[in-house]
Design brief:
Layout: H1 2-19, E1 34-36, E2 39-41, H2 53-73, H3 83-95, E3 112-116, E4 123-126, E5 130-134, H4 135-140, H5 145-160, H6 163-189, H7 194-203, H8 213-229, H9 235-250, H10 254-258, H11 263-271, H12 273-283
Parallel strand pairs: 3-5
Antiparallel strand pairs: 1-2, 4-5
Helix pairs in contact: 1-6, 3-5, 5-8, 5-9, 6-7, 8-12, 9-11
């Protein structure tokens, strides 16, 4: 019973912390951020520990599996032979070797990439490297490989920096933390499996999280760093968001609603080209001054 009380107390404490203002973790050098590869990086949020890694991983794996099963049953899960699936997996294969620079655990992740036929303009990467693209983002934005890599790198960066774990606590607040605590209790004591069901419901947030602007800015730059090292032109990130802005004037896509926009993001990318372009040039075996102008494809 003492163990039971300790778990309940921990869940209650976590719930209180979830309702309190978020405090940014201090960097090892005493500041609030560190600079890695020319990119300002914040320490991993303390809040993420309130969503235990094993619980988030389990929910992520189950939710991704369920989503793919449902897509398959509806006939909208693209087969492995689909040219776009082959293309996306090829892009991922080039990006993945550079992910451990930003999170050492990524070397052990069970990376997966799938495509769902849908007009939705969206993509995601769940914890553990589970990537999903909706065909709408490829077709409506007429993405080049460089631009698709910018999207994928951005989503992967969220997973690498564990933004989801922290945001789950911030977004769901008390109810989610108690559900997670309940799931732990159920697993330890073999109690009512309905508690585990509640935790699974909380896991549904993984596809609907709205990250903070700081999370988005960080994912923009880290994603482009990974893409540049893999030999994809980082200037594609600027063009990607310009396309997003144009599409947003027609009808706001889901990608925009879950990824706060703003011209400042494009300006930050431009401001970091002095760091990103040399990385890309080295990957291409040339010098920055010898890089050709970036060429994109118009919106459909």
């Amino acid at each position: 019973m003492n163990k039971f009380r300790n778990i309940v107390a921990a869940a209650a404490l976590a719930a209180c912390a979830a309702g309190a203002p978020a405090q940014q973790n201090a960097a090892p050098n005493g500041g609030q951020t560190t600079v890695q590869d020319g990119i300002e990086v914040r320490p991993l949020s303390r809040l993420r520990v309130l969503a235990p890694a094993e619980v988030v991983e389990s929910q992520s794996k189950q939710q991704y599996l369920t989503l793919m099963q449902q897509a398959s049953q509806k006939g909208v899960l693209a087969p492995t032979t689909d040219p776009q699936v082959v293309r996306l997996r090829g892009i991922a294969k080039r990006l993945i070797p550079f992910t451990p620079r930003w999170n050492g655990d990524a070397a052990k992740w069970d990376w997966q990439v799938n495509l769902i036929a849908s007009k939705e303009v969206n993509a995601f990467c769940m914890p553990g490297g589970r990537i999903g693209f909706y065909s709408g983002i490829l077709t409506q934005l007429n993405l080049s490989d460089d631009e698709a890599a910018a999207v994928m790198g951005h989503e992967v960066a969220h997973a690498l920096r564990e933004h989801s774990r922290a945001q789950m606590v911030k977004t769901a607040g008390t109810n989610t933390v108690f559900r997670l605590g309940g799931a732990l209790i159920a697993s330890v004591f073999g109690l009512d499996p309905g508690v585990t069901d509640m935790a699974a419901q909380a896991g549904g947030q993984l596809l609907t999280l709205r990250f903070s602007r700081d999370d988005e800015r960080e994912a923009d730059l880290i994603g482009l760093d990974i893409a540049a090292r893999a030999g994809f032109d980082p200037r594609a990130g600027i063009v990607l968001w310009e396309k997003m802005a144009t599409l947003n004037k027609r009808a706001p896509p889901q990608f925009i609603s879950t990824h706060p926009g703003g011209g400042d993001r494009i300006e930050r990318m431009k401001a970091h080209m002095n760091v990103l372009l040399p990385v890309y040039a080295r990957a291409k075996g040339t010098k920055v001054q010898n890089l050709p102008p970036y060429r994109s494809m118009a919106l459909n």
